[in-house]
TrEMBL record:
One of its GO terms (molecular function) is 3 iron, 4 sulfur cluster binding. This is Ferredoxin. Ferredoxins are iron-sulfur proteins that transfer electrons in a wide variety of metabolic reactions. Pfam families: Fer4_15 (PF13459). It comes from Candidatus Protofrankia californiensis. SUPFAM superfamilies: 4Fe-4S ferredoxins. Its cofactor is [3Fe-4S] cluster. Residues 8-36 form the 4Fe-4S ferredoxin-type domain.
Amino acid sequence: MAGVNQSVNVTLRVERCIGAGQCVRAAPDVFEQDESAGTVVLLAGMPPPDRWDAVRRAVALCPSQAVTFDPR
Ligand code: SF4
């Protein structure tokens, strides 16, 4: 329902991640890369609304469709 406790669900399919780092560049407060494996790590599964555009950019930029953004 619009305007009532909206949240965001960001999910990862790490097995798809190729470590390209586009998500980290788009939203460094939401994603980071594992130092050894280089794969994505989720820092904020429910980022605030002012970060939604950045998360959407991360989804669009990810070359392996490893990031899902599911606003509720
Ligand atoms: S942009 Fe996609 S492939 Fe690259 S690190 Fe992020 S999740 Fe992994």
